[in-house]
Amino acid sequence: MQKGIVTSNISDLYKVETNNIVYNCNARGKFKAGEISPVAGDLVEVDITDENKKVGVIEKILERKNYIKRPKMANLTQIILVVSMKLPKPDLLLLDKQLVYAEYMDIKPIICLNKIDLEDEEKIEYIYNLYSKIGYTVIKTDAKNNVGVDQIKKYLQNNITAFSGNSGVGKSTLINSILGKQIAEEGNISSKNKRGKNTTTQVLLYKIGENSYIADTPGFSTFDISEIEKSDLAKYFIEFRPYLADCEYADCSHKKEENCGIKRAVQEGKISKDRYERFCEL
pTM (2 decimals)? Predict the structure, then answer.
């Protein structure tokens, strides 16, 4: 029995990498009976049934550090949240939603401001300063011209990293720049609605070094934060945390109450009004 990592799955066929060799594997029927199936990122035990044909059977799924339902993948350690500065324009409500989800799942988020060549420096600096002051790592990139790509590479070692964001923001272009070859398919921007056409249809892990993988993922912009209790949402806006104890009521909604530590911090300029308003919207 060998241990490996699932790098992709199409229907019931899984690609498992072990000792730098990729095997095509099926999974034992017992997984279906237990209502659990292997997903990209899973660490598994594999029985190699034909070494020459590189075929095997997944016998066991090892304990997961985390599991994301949509798109299905496991053991993520890092998410690079790609925000396009233009075409499409920045969606900061989506970014805040993704940051909340990353904090909730205890996955390190990194913010990537892409297409900086298309926008004014002032608008770029506003977003950069807003999130870097909170404590997040923010990287400016122009993926098509390879600007900022080396900076991203430094954060990828010994991680399973997913790239997330609306279609058209440049996720696949970034991945291709990192890998130095055309692997991830790049989407075009629809001239009619200025939105990207989603080109990625499955989760694929690309190995970039020992214990280092990057994932091209579809549908990550549809993060479902409904599993987070409304009363807990403020805890995942990390700059809110120091002021939660200043609220008069333990069940403060931070919206209507008078003696609210969060609202006071917003009034005093300690919390961004824009971030607070997006909190209220979420």
Answer: 0.88
> Residue 33: its pLDDT value, please?
65
Tokens of 269: 């300029």
Backbone angles phi, psi at 41, to 5 degrees: 100, -15
Q: Quick check: 238 and 231 in contact, CB under 8 A? A: no
CB atoms within 10 A of CB 169: 30
pLDDT single digits (tens) 49-78 = 999 999 999 999 999 999 988 888 999 999
Map tokens 């233009």 to a residue: 86
Is the Cα torsion angle 14, 23, 198, 167 positive or negative in sign? positive
Question: pLDDT (tens digit, 9 = 90+) per residue, 88-115?
Answer: 999 999 999 999 999 999 999 999 999 9
pLDDT band at 199 (very low <50, low <70, confident <90, very high): very low
Q: Reading across the β-sheet that carries 78-84, which strands appear in turn?
A: 137-140, 108-114, 78-84, 160-164, 212-216, 204-209
Phi-psi region of 180 (alpha: psi -120 to 50; beta: other; left: phi over 0): left
Q: 8 is written with which tokens?
A: 């992709």
Report residue 53 as tokens.
Answer: 């044909």
